[in-house]
Design goal:
Nucleotidyltransferase, domain 5; 340 residues; 9 helices; alpha/beta; five-stranded mixed β-sheet
Length: 340
Amino acid sequence: MDKQNVYILGIESSCDDTAAAVLCNGRILSNVVATQKIHEQYGGVVPELASRAHQQNIVPVIDQALKQAGIQKEDLSAIAFTRGPGLMGSLLVGTSFAKSLALALDIPLIDVNHMQAHILAHFIEEDGYDVPEFPFLAMTISGGHTQIVKVTDHFEMEVIGETIDDAVGEAYDKSAKILGMPYPGGPLIDKHAQKGNPKAFPFTKPRVQGLNFSFSGLKTAILYFVQKQTKENPDFIKENLEDICASIQYTIINILIDKLKKASKETGIKSIAIGGGVSANSGIRKALKEGEYKYGWKTFVPKFEYTTDNAGMIAIVGYLKYLKKDFTDMDIIAKARIKF
């Protein structure tokens, strides 16, 4: 193997996806994700079941990632893993495996903040995708997080707005549950919304100070609205599903875009990058593109496979830290809650 090449193995196990990726000098060679189907019957992630599934999946997933990349484990330069934030049991599986493998191969170990990784996924070298220039605003939207982050450098980030209660992904999933859809319901709302009238049913937007978000009140409003309407007409959901979904989506996107507009105005930054699972939503992508014309933004949306939890984003952070020789020691422990 060419010693000029830096090969990073990324391991991601923060929630219910077991993922491994191999990166060479900024380019992804493989990105393997094992999704856990077991949680669907419970309508949400069950932490104990998630950690057990990680234990079953981690060896085959890493083996597959190395095979797809066409390298041996001995060719690796370092191992990067998600330290947090996430579910403690899930994080422990990835952390323990990464430490053991780094020790066995006698190569550096690199800890990665999952939230930083969603932002730095934009720096994976991909044909047809631009890399944002500093400074830029990053909006991270997922099942567990809603944040606006001012990014001055790869590792200089400041959270300037975040949710004070529920994350946007949770608002999507809970709304879907109210409408009788299976978990995860966010993508299903997006699918139905594309055929509906977004102004059919107006929902009140919460008033939240500054750049912070709130979604719990919206969830309650949707619940009461659906309960009231189905009392009057038991077939209300069935007859109006596309319009209800479009109205929910329209409200959520307006909340997000309003805060982005405010953040852009206050900071004077017009480069906007999004990440996290909810950034796969078609309505959000469309609204961002419109922002380019309306507000003079330059927007960055990562390749679809780097939006949801994946190890490619862990590997790119590992690579950027490797270049700085920013390694960790074997005493490192996983942390369910972790700041930037």
